């Protein structure tokens, strides 16, 4: 496995661990039971992502494992403003924060794709960007369900 690919795996795993830590810590910063539950769910999902990434890395990821289906970005988070931290955040702010964090991850992996030399690493970046987009999409759909726009 090329060094570039190993570094990319390690970076992806680190990013998931950092997100998990953020969501675990943020549970102590809110009194909103719904936000606490959402943060616990987000932390559990990030831990699951770490475990999956580690298993795939150890098993030896191959570009043929990469599904090249491109997801559509709902872009809901583009139109929402939210907090820069999760301190004292309620459910709505927590969802917006998480959507924007997932969007940052999509952008990170998309930009990395252009900076890498090895095709395997580029394909892994594409796959990671799509996974982050899936997470963002799930959060955006949950947001729309919980906080529908008022019809005028």
Fold and architecture overview:
- The protein has helices at 3-26, 33-59, 91-115, 119-146.
- With 152 residues, it is an all-alpha fold.
- The chain has one domain: Ferritin, core subunit, four-helix bundle (Ferritin, Up-down Bundle).
- α1 runs parallel beside α4 and α2 runs parallel beside α3 (91-115).
- The N and C termini lie far apart (56 Å).
Shape annotation: globular
Structural class: mainly alpha
Order of helical and strand elements: HHHH
CATH class: Mainly Alpha
Rg value: 16 Å
- Low-pLDDT segments, ≥5 res: none
Approximately how much helix is present in the residues? 55-70%
Q: In the CATH classification, which architecture applies? A: Up-down Bundle
What distinguishing features does this structure have?
single chain; 152 residues; Ferritin; 4 helices
Topology:
Layout: H1 3-26, H2 33-59, H3 91-115, H4 119-146
Quick description:
This protein is mostly helical and 152 residues long.
């Amino acid at each position: 496995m090329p060094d570039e690919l190993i570094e990319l795996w390690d970076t992806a795993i680190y990013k998931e661990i950092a997100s998990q830590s953020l969501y675990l810590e943020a549970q102590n910063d809110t009194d909103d039971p719904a936000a606490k539950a959402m943060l616990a769910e987000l932390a559990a999902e990030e831990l699951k992502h770490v475990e999956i990434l580690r298993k795939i890395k150890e098993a030896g990821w191959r570009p043929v494992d990469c599904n090249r289906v491109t997801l559509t970005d709902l872009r809901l988070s583009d139109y929402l403003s939210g907090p820069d931290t999760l301190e004292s955040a309620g459910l709505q702010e927590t969802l917006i924060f998480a959507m924007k964090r997932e969007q940052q991850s999509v952008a990170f992996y998309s930009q990395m794709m252009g900076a890498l030399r090895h095709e395997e690493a580029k394909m892994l970046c594409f796959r990671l960007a799509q996974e982050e987009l899936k997470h963002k999409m799930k959060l955006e759909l949950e947001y729309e369900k919980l906080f529908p726009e008022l019809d005028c």
